[in-house]
Structures are given as C-alpha cells and as structure tokens.
C-alpha cells in the first residue's frame, strides 16, 4: 500500500476510473446484445415496428459507444469496430429480406 499522500490519491483516482470504465464497457456490451437481438427479430419477421425497435436500439448503442470513446473507456478504433459490427448485422438482415422478397 502506498504511504505517500500523492500516491494514495493516485490509487484512489485509478480505482474510480476503473469502476467508471467498467460501467461504460458493461453498458456497451448490454446495448450491443439488445441491438443484435432486435436485428435477429427483424430478420425473422420484418415489420415496421421491428425496424423501429432496431433503429431505437442502434441509436442507444451508438450513443453509449460514442460516450465511452469520449471519456476514454474505449479506444476510438474499438468503438468504430463495434459500430461497424452493428451496422453490418443490420445490412445483412436487410439484404436477406430483399432476397426473400
């Protein structure tokens, strides 16, 4: 354990930041799972309501990812990759609907 006052403070700050980052990362994972679930629901039975749900989940996930990148919980490339994977899943579901029609 640190004995110097500044070192004690740095330990406290590091712990605070670790918990904040953990919260952001957990929220991002949860929202991504919800978004993928909404996309799968849309792919199974396409409707305007399910597409609206997908858009809502996508917006929430993008917002949280951008916020996590802004505060430094995620690297910019990591956030971009996550957003890309979400959009790729949506495009794949839309393409399968276009082929099926």
Walk me through what this model shows:
The protein is mostly helical and 101 residues long. The chain has one domain: Methane Monooxygenase Hydroxylase, Chain G, domain 1. The chain contains 3 helices and no strands. The chain has helices spanning 5-44, 48-71, 76-100. α1 (5-44) packs antiparallel against α2, α1 packs parallel to α3 and α2 packs antiparallel against α3 (76-100). The longest helix has 40 residues, at 5-44.
Furnish the topology, listing elements before pairings.
Elements: H1 5-44, H2 48-71, H3 76-100
Structure at a glance:
This protein is mainly alpha-helical and 101 residues long. It is built from three helices and no strands. It has one domain: Up-down Bundle (Methane Monooxygenase Hydroxylase, Chain G, domain 1).
Terminus-to-terminus distance: 65 Å
What's the Cα radius of gyration? Answer: 19 Å
Share in β-strands:
under 5%
Beta strands, count: 0
The tally of domains stands at: 1
Helix content: over 70%
Q: Looking at the structure, what is the overall shape?
A: rod-shaped
Please trace the helix and strand order, writing H or E for each element: HHH
Largest sheet: none
Low-confidence stretches: none
CATH architecture assignment name? Up-down Bundle
Structural class comes to mainly alpha
Q: Mind telling me the CATH class?
A: Mainly Alpha
């Amino acid at each position: 354990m640190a004995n110097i006052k500044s070192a004690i403070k740095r330990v406290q700050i590091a712990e605070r930041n670790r918990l904040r980052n953990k919260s952001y990362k957990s929220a991002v994972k949860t929202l991504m799972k919800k978004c993928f679930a909404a996309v799968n629901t849309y792919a199974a039975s396409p409707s305007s309501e399910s597409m609206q749900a997908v858009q809502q989940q996508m917006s929430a996930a993008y917002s949280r990812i951008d916020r996590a990148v802004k505060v430094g919980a995620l690297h910019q490339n990591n956030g971009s990759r996550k957003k890309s994977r979400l959009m790729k899943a949506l495009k794949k579901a839309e393409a399968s609907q276009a082929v099926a029609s």
